[in-house]
Amino acid sequence: MSTLWTAAEAAAATGGRATCDWQASGVSIDTRSLAPGDLFVALKDRRDGHEFVAAALAAGAAAALVSRVPEGVADDAPLLIVDDVLLALQALGRAGRDRTGARVVAVTGSVGKTSTKEMLRHVLAGQGRVHAAEASFNNHWGVPLTLARLPRDAAFAVVEIGMNHPGEIAPLTRLARPHVALITTIAPAHLAAFDDLAGIAREKASIFEGLAEGGAAIYPADLETSPILAAAAREYAAKSVTFGQEDGCDFRLLGIEIHAASTVVQARAPGQDLLFKIQSAGRHFAMNALSVLAAVESLGIDGAVAACDLAGWVPPAGRGARLRIALDVVEDQMMVEVIDDAFNANPASVAAALEVLAAARPQDGVGRVARGRRIAILGDMLELGPDEQGLHAGLADLPAMAQVDLVHCVGPRMRALYFALPLKKRGQWFDEAEPLADKVHHMVDAGDVVLVKGSKGSRVSAVVDALKKLGQAVPAPQEDPE
Fold first, then answer.
1. Is 214 flagged in the annotation as binding?
2. C-alpha–C-alpha distance, residues 261 and 334, integer Å
3. Rg of the chain over CA atoms, in angstroms?
4. Which stretches of 125-168 are DSSP H helices?
5. What is the second-level CATH architecture of the domain 5-83?
6. Centroid of chain to Cα 217
7. 424 is in an annotated binding site
8. 453: which strand partners?
9. Distance (Å, rounded) from C-alpha 83 to C-alpha 91?
């Protein structure tokens, strides 16, 4: 197990005092996921992390980063004592970034941050050691934590940067100092904290402010708000690279075929035409892939090799991952296919998810219902501001909705969609996810394809968990049948 931080290094980085000599192989902010040898950071949230220091040390933590000696912990325990734990974590992240030789890519956007980050992790892994943010660690804790965990010998680092309100992104990108900063798209999300899309675009564009000298800005060129992104790129970046579907984009989508379990993409990059396949269905994944190819080109990596490597990527759980639930251990056709997209939602991402559902192929004649169905279980889209009712109701008019057989709705906001749907598509409405989860075994059948989509706060992930309990869950086939 290699050493990530010594007591002396961490003390020098944070200005703290180490009570003894220790060596940490990792950094953790949660005792539930802490590994032996980690430095435990006692942050304060709903509960004070100092309450968990004794448990962290008992679980094998190398030391704890604290602002005081916690109750029940000996004075000579391995501690790093600082004035402010969060500021110390930020300092540790800054020091981790300062000492690395890794090429750093930072990713933000209204939709697709985590999927794009994971695509980059997958593609760059073929070129050298990659360090990337875990899950969606993208806030004032997650970014410095990602940098504090950055191995000394990493060749690449991928940092995800998110926001809920104005002014969040710039300090985080200055901490990360990326060589490449990428914006996936601008869409209605977090409108409760912004007046309009232009405000969201200006906040997202601030990711370019932290670019390292000679850095590249990558952004979509065919959005209404693209001029805002372009202006920031001109101000802060040495190089601008665009992607999209219109003439003039450096990385241009020429054609797309969405199949039940894959997407075939035809694109034009500087100096070459590309044809590649992603083992996941969705136009949004194709656009994310274009942005990834723009990023790797900016890092000096062969785009054709990267395009081939994209074929091995699949979405993570909660981000469009597909699985099949075997309802009968003997009858292998007794399957329900689930599209797990239960982590985040806004109008753009719901539209993309419904397009994936529309391309799915249910199976007829294998369940109680003669015809397999496309079923959407949609939870509230949060933080959309004063027009949230209209944005929810507007989902009923999406083109892909024509291919959906039944829509079940979860949450007070989704009630607007429920009543906007035609009666033949209207399933059931629940104020909360748990009652739907309790009844979901009556609502699906073998041969159905079920999309579960909603903001994390809608808790529709409980529905995914309930679906998994109906039988044995296995990954959906990654290749389309001939």
1. no
2. 19
3. 23
4. 142-148
5. 3-Layer(aba) Sandwich (3.40)
6. 20
7. no
8. 341, 378
9. 12
Give yes or no for a contact between 329 and 442, defined as CB atoms under 8 angstroms apart. no
Q: Give the bridge partners for 375, in sequence order.
A: 406, 450
User: Residue 456: how many CA atoms within 13 Å on its side-chain side?
Assistant: 6
115 marked ligand binding residue: yes
Q: Is 113 annotated as a binding residue?
A: yes
pLDDT tens, residue by residue, 92-150:
999 999 999 999 999 999 988 988 999 999 999 999 999 998 877 899 999 999 999 99
Query: Which residue intervals of the chain bear CATH 3.40.1390.10?
Result: 5-83
pLDDT digits (tens, 9 = 90+) for 224-257: 999 999 999 999 999 999 999 999 999 999 999 8
- Within the chain, all domains assigned CATH 3.40.1190.10 are found at 100-312
- Cα separation, 144 vs 85, in Å, equals 12
What's the CATH architecture for 321-475? Alpha-Beta Complex (3.90)
- Rounded Cα–Cα distance for residues 181 and 116 (Å): 12
Residue 240 annotated as binding site: no
Return residue ranges of the chain for CATH 3.90.190.20: 321-475
291 is in an annotated binding site: no
Architecture of domain 100-312 in CATH? Answer: 3-Layer(aba) Sandwich (3.40)
Helix (H) or strand (E) holding 215: none
CA distance 8 to 77: 16
Q: Give the separation between CA 137 and CA 443, rounded to whole angstroms.
A: 34
Q: Do 436 and 408 touch, CB atoms closer than 8 A?
A: yes
Binding residue per annotation — 67? Answer: no
